Amino acid sequence: MSVRQERSRSVDRRVRVQGHPVDAYPALPPEAERGSVRRVTVVGEEVLSRPCREVTEFGTPELSALIDDMFATMYVADGAGLAANQVGVDLRLFVYDCPDDEGIRHVGHLINAVLDLPDPGSRRLVDDFEGCLSVPGATMAVPRTDRAVARGLDKDGNPLVIEGTGYFARCLQHETDHLFGHTYLDRLSKRDRKDAVRQMEDCQQDVFAQRAIKAASLGR
Questions:
Q1: Cα-flanking dihedrals φ and ψ of residue 156, to 5°?
Q2: Mind listing the pLDDT tens digit for each residue in 31-73?
Q3: Which of 10, 56, 84, 137 could staple 91 via S-S, CB 3.0–4.6 A?
Q4: Among candidate residues 176, 183, 162, the one with its CA nearest the CA of residue 106
Q5: Is the pTM of this model over 0.90?
Q6: What is the pLDDT of residues 140-170, one digit of tens each?
Q7: Which of 173, 174, 153 has its CA nearest to residue 111?
Q8: In the chain, what are the helix, strand and coil shares in percent, each to the nearest 5?
Q9: List 57, 130, 163, 175, catalytic entry
Q10: Is 46 a catalytic residue?
Q11: Fold category of 9-213 in CATH
């Protein structure tokens, strides 16, 4: 998921890491410092359109390295969230570094995520513009609920419950969609989907160039 352009991680005053409040946190997460940048898959690639496999092995160096690489890739691509299939790995895992509408920055990862949404009678749908790192350069209005709870595990197999409101709730819904083989394009009308693909075709080369510049600035 793309970062809202008007928001900056550098101005966030409050941070929750893996759902827990912390007093301070660096603008560049430690995982991104350790990780290597991977290629981001683009809509149309088969790995994005099939459900991801559950993670069954926890606490491994390979899983930790994948999370580090996903953070580095998300940062270089100016993302607020990134699913494993967006770097070509079909595992049910996503990472996030996303603000909510109250200015709280949420940072972490979630494995084998399932989503709890409010009951239909109490939920409020909000239309807001949404982008995706696998649909580079395109943004479209997508209806999402303004509250969401994602349940899953951390990299060591410990249970996690991550609650989101506003833009962070949107992020949790967007990334969980990826784990089941969907992008936000699947939630659009046929006409809007064509518009998004047209935007991507017009902008993707510029987006790729900006990612390359940012990666080079980090020595990646």
A1: -100, 5
A2: 999 999 999 999 999 999 999 999 999 999 999 999 999 999 9
A3: 84
A4: 162
A5: yes
A6: 999 999 999 999 999 999 999 999 999 999 9
A7: 153
A8: 35, 30, 35
A9: 175
A10: no
A11: Peptide Deformylase (3.90.45)
